[in-house]
């Protein structure tokens, strides 16, 4: 009987993996069609390797390199499309941001536990809630190879978007009262409400900034999700005590920031290029809707405490959610790099056409 469960489980995982790979491999066609290009079946896929992606983390970097990253997004510092890199992304400075925040949190802990200073508690709540989500946000800021979104815009989206998404969530909760139990129905309803609230806010900011690239959508989504995560975690401390900050800080590596980043990228994939995302896009674009449903599913699994199980099962659930979430982030990164190649290919074709007319 046990062997049958294992076999059925592996068959199901194989089925799911096959479906995911099929969608993943078709992203080239989706991007090309969205940009109005003919599908090139010989187009080489962009390779994504964890070891390569984070290979620059432990290398020495100068202050000038950091300055170039954080002054991006202005008229003077946004590169033209020809200068945008389609090489594998290698973010690194987000780890420096995390180390600064982690060091700050450690010093606040010393104030509290060594010297008994209760004045350190508000700082611990804020820095503890901020450390992981904001560091992830900085990673997505680095990954935005177009460098067309400024740090000021990111911070506006992080603060205003994070709080606005909580306000929209509360509005939805008024319409759909949530029961505080551990049932799958309750977890699903929470997932639907919170992910839809973030989606609405992400769409508002993407449309307001007139953004059109996958990396832009991922960044704006991450900003809204990070803000949501920080303010939500801070609120939970008042309800469940300071110990909450220790668990939620590390759990943030695979929750709201990641889910919202996935949705942000999917919004770009689902909208007409150089046009705002509309209500019609929301209900008629299956690829966007699939990613939204996956985000809701991940949120539901994260919140659901399976009856009759213990801590080991809960940790396993969380690990599954984190792995799937990050896999989809790499799918978005891959899609974003392919989009750069497609757009740059369009420029080459247009240049050749103009050249041909001149000769004639």
UniProtKB/TrEMBL annotation:
<feature type="transmembrane region" description="Helical">
    <location>
        <begin position="213"/>
        <end position="231"/>
    </location>
</feature>
<feature type="transmembrane region" description="Helical">
    <location>
        <begin position="251"/>
        <end position="270"/>
    </location>
</feature>
<keyword id="KW-0812">Transmembrane</keyword>
<dbReference type="Pfam" id="PF13367">
    <property type="entry name" value="PrsW-protease"/>
</dbReference>
<keyword id="KW-0472">Membrane</keyword>
<feature type="transmembrane region" description="Helical">
    <location>
        <begin position="158"/>
        <end position="176"/>
    </location>
</feature>
<feature type="transmembrane region" description="Helical">
    <location>
        <begin position="188"/>
        <end position="206"/>
    </location>
</feature>
<dbReference type="GO" id="GO:0008233">
    <property type="term" value="F:peptidase activity"/>
</dbReference>
<dbReference type="InterPro" id="IPR026898">
    <property type="entry name" value="PrsW"/>
</dbReference>
<keyword id="KW-1133">Transmembrane helix</keyword>
<feature type="transmembrane region" description="Helical">
    <location>
        <begin position="93"/>
        <end position="115"/>
    </location>
</feature>
<feature type="transmembrane region" description="Helical">
    <location>
        <begin position="319"/>
        <end position="337"/>
    </location>
</feature>
<feature type="transmembrane region" description="Helical">
    <location>
        <begin position="121"/>
        <end position="146"/>
    </location>
</feature>
<protein>
    <recommendedName>
        <fullName>PrsW family intramembrane metalloprotease</fullName>
    </recommendedName>
</protein>
